[in-house]
Automatic annotation (TrEMBL):
<comment type="similarity">
    <text>Belongs to the glycosyl hydrolase 27 family.</text>
</comment>
<keyword id="KW-0325">Glycoprotein</keyword>
<dbReference type="GO" id="GO:0004557">
    <property type="term" value="F:alpha-galactosidase activity"/>
</dbReference>
<keyword id="KW-0326">Glycosidase</keyword>
<dbReference type="GO" id="GO:0005576">
    <property type="term" value="C:extracellular region"/>
</dbReference>
<dbReference type="GO" id="GO:0009311">
    <property type="term" value="P:oligosaccharide metabolic process"/>
</dbReference>
<dbReference type="InterPro" id="IPR013780">
    <property type="entry name" value="Glyco_hydro_b"/>
</dbReference>
<dbReference type="InterPro" id="IPR002241">
    <property type="entry name" value="Glyco_hydro_27"/>
</dbReference>
<dbReference type="Pfam" id="PF16499">
    <property type="entry name" value="Melibiase_2"/>
</dbReference>
<dbReference type="InterPro" id="IPR013785">
    <property type="entry name" value="Aldolase_TIM"/>
</dbReference>
<dbReference type="GO" id="GO:0046479">
    <property type="term" value="P:glycosphingolipid catabolic process"/>
</dbReference>
<comment type="function">
    <text>Catalyzes the hydrolysis of glycosphingolipids and participates in their degradation in the lysosome.</text>
</comment>
<dbReference type="Pfam" id="PF17450">
    <property type="entry name" value="Melibiase_2_C"/>
</dbReference>
<dbReference type="GO" id="GO:0016020">
    <property type="term" value="C:membrane"/>
</dbReference>
<dbReference type="GO" id="GO:0005764">
    <property type="term" value="C:lysosome"/>
</dbReference>
<keyword id="KW-1015">Disulfide bond</keyword>
<dbReference type="GO" id="GO:0016139">
    <property type="term" value="P:glycoside catabolic process"/>
</dbReference>
Length: 430
């Protein structure tokens, strides 16, 4: 995006909005980040239904999750897609070369499962791979993009996660991702297209995000998430380290995907779960939980269902946030929101000691007039009316995050709380 200092801020803002809105995949989907549940991180490739019927990849698992998404309030707050990952397939295609599920684990077939999920007012996602085999070694889509897209459409699939294992050459990888996008379009069915194109490409060549955005609704850039703080922080660090490249690519219809939410599993402390929820909201990330909704603890559930934080993630302006600066092992992240509001996250990256205080000054939020500040995480608290002379002190636990929302107070509602130079391109001050 050229040098930020050589163009007026408003021109850059327009340029980035134009990039975001004019060139998204034209399927009318993912105007805000996709929300749902995806089996991979928690259930992996567990195909052993004989010894572990409760946790194996089977139609029963997805029906249970669909039931719970409705009965436990997930659907009400926006989680909509129930998504199957790798390991649903039979070892071979059928006599007509069509994909078929493992009949022992999906005895009713995928169409019946889709009907069931749809009867609950939810949507069904499925998984395939651009190459000859999926990552777990099941038949891939290479050579069958149109047939597989049509099969998915016939079954009533609503989202395709398209992995990139076993892709052959870089040209075939790109052609495959493009061809599958066109094949999905040709079916006439609305299917969210979730890609891993830049992840596989980046080892050889800088991905062209303008192009990726024309073909995909979201795209994975970096490693699979694990159930650990170490994994979470490598994702945050990669994102911050590449924000000049990836932040401008995000917008309604196309999003950077930092991978699943692992909140409610085994590996993250409470503060680390708060950090994941807050930063996935700042990053305008798809919210695809991979956890066990049958046994999730109430605190994790409340965090994942926090409507105020979800509203930041789903903000209609659709601008991804960014790391503005680091100071004394604190990170200050910001995300511009609609109606001139602003989300601010303060992460304490120190992994030793006790909670530390961080002071935000008026110029941290470019507060020209009066604004109302609300703390959303770790707990909700109204911090009242502030102006440019205010100083807000927040206490942040090690590896934890405080998430704030700043809105213009009623008498100054026409003033933006952030100046235009305060969007993503100002971060070269890092
Ligand atoms: C297919 O693409 C065209 C234009 O590129 C678009 O108008 C149409 O809505 C798309 N259809 C589907 C089902 O995505
Ligand atoms: C993609 O589609 C084009 C046009 O139909 C075809 O020539 C090409 O072989 C396809 N590539 C792959 C990898 O399937
Ligand atoms: C990136 O892709 C866009 C759209 O397909 C294209 O116009 C542009 O030339 C590409 N940029 C580079 C550096 O290849
Ligand atoms: C800002 O708020 C402080 C404390 O409420 C108040 O004393 C001060 O006059 C205000 N300044 C402006 C410019 O509104």
């Amino acid at each position: 995006m050229g040098s930020p200092t050589s163009l007026p801020a408003t021109a850059l803002l327009w340029l980035s909005l134009w990039t975001a809105w004019a060139q998204a995949l034209d399927n009318g989907l993912a105007l805000t980040p996709t929300m749902g549940w995806l089996h991979w991180e928690r259930f992996l490739c567990n195909t052993n239904c004989d010894s572990d019927p409760h946790n194996c990849i089977s139609e029963q698992l997805f029906m249970q999750m669909a039931d719970l998404m409705v009965s436990e309030g997930w659907k009400n707050v926006g989680y909509q897609y129930v998504c199957i990952d790798d390991c649903w397939l039979a070892a071979t295609r059928d006599a007509q070369n069509r994909l078929q599920p493992d009949m022992k684990r999906f005895p009713s077939g995928i169409k019946k499962l889709a009907d069931y999920v749809h009867s609950k007012g939810l949507k069904l996602g499925i998984y395939q791979d651009v190459g000859k085999k999926t990552c777990a070694g099941f038949p891939g889509s290479f050579g069958f993009y149109e047939l597989d897209a049509q099969t998915f459409a016939d079954w009533g699939i609503d989202l395709l996660k398209f992995d990139g294992c076993n892709y052959g050459t870089l040209n075939l990888l790109a052609e495959g991702y493009r061809n599958m996008s066109l094949a999905l379009n040709k079916t006439g069915r609305s299917i969210v297209y979730s890609c891993e194109w830049p992840f596989y490409m980046k080892f050889f060549k800088q991905p062209n995000y303008t192009e990726i955005r024309e073909y995909c609704n979201h795209w994975r850039n970096f490693d699979d998430i694990y159930d650990s703080w170490n994994s979470l922080k490598t994702i945050l660090d990669w994102t911050a380290g590449h924000q000049d490249l990836i932040v401008p690519a995000a917008g309604p219809g196309g999003w950077n995907d930092p991978d699943m939410l692992v909140i409610g599993n085994f590996g993250l402390s409470w503060d680390q779960q708060v950090t994941q929820m807050a930063l996935w909201a700042i990053m305008a990330a798809p919210l695809l939980m991979s956890n066990d909704l049958r046994t999730i603890d109430p605190n994790s559930k409340a965090l994942l269902q926090n409507k105020e934080v979800i509203a930041i993630n789903q903000d209609p302006l659709g601008k991804q946030g960014y790391l503005e600066r680091k100071v004394e092992d604190f990170e200050l992240w910001k995300r511009p929101l609609s109606q001139g509001a602003l989300a601010v996250a303060v992460v304490n990256r120190r992994e030793i000691g006790s909670s530390r205080s961080f002071v935000l000054l008026g110029n941290d939020w470019a507060c020209k007039q009066k604004c109302v500040i609300t703390r959303l995480l770790p707990t909700h608290k109204d911090l009242g009316l502030h102006n440019c002379t205010s100083a807000i002190k927040v206490q942040v636990n090690p590896t934890g995050t405080v998430l704030l929302k700043l809105t213009a107070s009623e008498d100054t509602a026409h003033h933006k709380l952030f100046s235009e130079s305060d969007t993503w391109h100002s971060m070269d001050t890092l």
